[in-house]
Amino acid sequence: MDRFEAMRVYVRVVETGSFTRAAHTLQLGRTRVTELVQQLEAHLRVRLLNRTTRRMNVTAEGRAYYERAVRLLADLEDAEGSLHRATSALRGRLRIDVPSPFARLLLVPALPGFHALHPEIELHIGVSDREVDLIGDNVDCVIRGGEPSALSLVARPLGVLPFGVHAAPSYLQRHGVPLHPRDLEDGDHRTVGFLRPRTGRTRTLALRRGDEEIEVQGRHVVAIDDGDAYLAAGVAGLGIVCVPDYMAAPHVARGELVALLEGWQAAMPMHLMFPPNRHVSERLRAFIDWVTALMAAHPDVR
C-alpha cells in the first residue's frame, strides 16, 4: 500500500462524503478507492468510517486522522513545491469557475498576461453563475459577486464593482424615463429580474445616493439567471437593468443603453473563494495574486 496515496484518497472521501464522488474527482475506479481506505484502516488498526448501503459517517478516530492527514499532505506539497520552485516554473492544472460577464470582459482578455508569467499552468475555466460544489466538482476556486453565502469557504476580497441603472432607448420610448428608484415599482415600468442561483428568487436592487439608500424589487415579466443574458435582455428593451459599469460602458457608448437615475448606484463586492481544508497550492496562490492585482488596476473596480 502506498500510504500517501491512501491518505489522499481517504481525505477526498471525507471531503466529498462519498466513495463514488471521491473516485470521480481523483479519476480512479471506485473499487480502488474502497480498497485503499480498507488497507489504510487495516494498517492503522482502527475504523475510520462507518459505512452502510445508504450512508457513510466519519468516526471520532477518523475525524482526528483526517485533520492530521490534511496537515501532513499540505506539508508534503509545500516541501515538493519549494524544490520545484527552485528548479523550474510553476506547472499543473488549475480549475476555476467564474461568472460569464467577468470571464468575457475582464478575465479572459487579461489571460495572456497571466500566461506570460506562468506559461506552464493549465487553466480549466468553468463559466457560470450557478453555485459550485468545489469538492464534488473538483474546482480549486470560484469568483463570485455579492456577500459570501457559504460560510464554510475562505473568501478573499477582490474589490467592489459599481453598478448603474440602464435601459434601452426603445424601452424608454414606450415607458418613459424613471426619475426616482421608486418609479421602478409603479405600473408603468418593468425591470428584468435576475434570478439568484441558490434560491431561484429575483434579486432586489439596493440603490444608494449619498447617505440615502432604497431597496427596490421592481416588476418584471422576464427573469434570467445569467449575467450576459440579463444584459442582453436590457439591450433588447425588455426592461430596466442594473449592471456593473464595466458591462454597461460599451453599450452606452454605442447608444444601445441609456444611464438612468443620475447619482444613484449599487455596488457588489467580489470574492475569490476556496475550501478552508484545501491546501493553497503554489499555482493557486499565483493565480490569486494575479487576479487580485488585475482587479486593483481596473478603472471600474473600487
UniProtKB/TrEMBL annotation:
GO terms for molecular function: DNA-binding transcription factor activity; sequence-specific DNA binding. It holds the Pfam family LysR_substrate. The keyword Transmembrane does not apply. SUPFAM superfamilies: Periplasmic binding protein-like II, Winged helix' DNA-binding domain. The keyword Lipoprotein does not apply. Keywords: DNA-binding, Transcription, Transcription regulation. CDD domains: PBP2_CrgA_like_3. InterPro entries: LysR-type_TF_proteobact-type, LysR_HTH_N, LysR_subst-bd, WH-like_DNA-bd_sf, WH_DNA-bd_sf. Residues 1-59 form the HTH lysR-type domain. One of its GO terms (biological process) is DNA-templated transcription. Belongs to the LysR transcriptional regulatory family. This is LysR family transcriptional regulator. The lineage of its organism: Bacteria, Pseudomonadati, Pseudomonadota, Gammaproteobacteria, Lysobacterales.
